[in-house]
Amino acid sequence: MIDAVGSEDVVNDAMGLICDRGEICCYGVPRKEEMHIDFSKADYNWVLNFQQFPRKDEEAAAHSEVIQWIREGKINLKDYISDYFSFDDVIEAYDKAMNKQVLKKGIVVF
Fold it and tell me: Which domain of life is it from (predicted)?
């Protein structure tokens, strides 16, 4: 399970989905310095991993400039996307991502 929001609610929902020896990967960290996680919904063995790169302050410093480049057409976000998947095909999307068959970014469309 991958969370790109850093939301306590999303992580707690994921706890009910994770299987034995599964992993929840959170790209991005919560806004607060704490998080309350309900372990009771999870299977026996699991990993909860938080990763933030670049650091929040580095990302924030570059944000306005990147948005300006997008507005000026210097960056086309579609250049960074190789695959689109419908939500019904999310298992296929996951398998392709795990097998390195998604060359850039894969987008799941709801």
Answer: Bacteria
| C-alpha dist (Å) from residue 3 to 64, 65, 72, 79 | 24, 26, 30, 23
pTM above 0.85, yes or no: no
| Domain extent listing, the chain | 1-74, 76-110
Which residue, among 9, 7, 80, has the nearest Cα to 38 in the 3D structure? 9
Rounded Cα gap, residues 56 and 99, in angstroms: 30
Instruction: Let me know: does 59 contact 51? Beta carbons within 8 Å.
Output: no
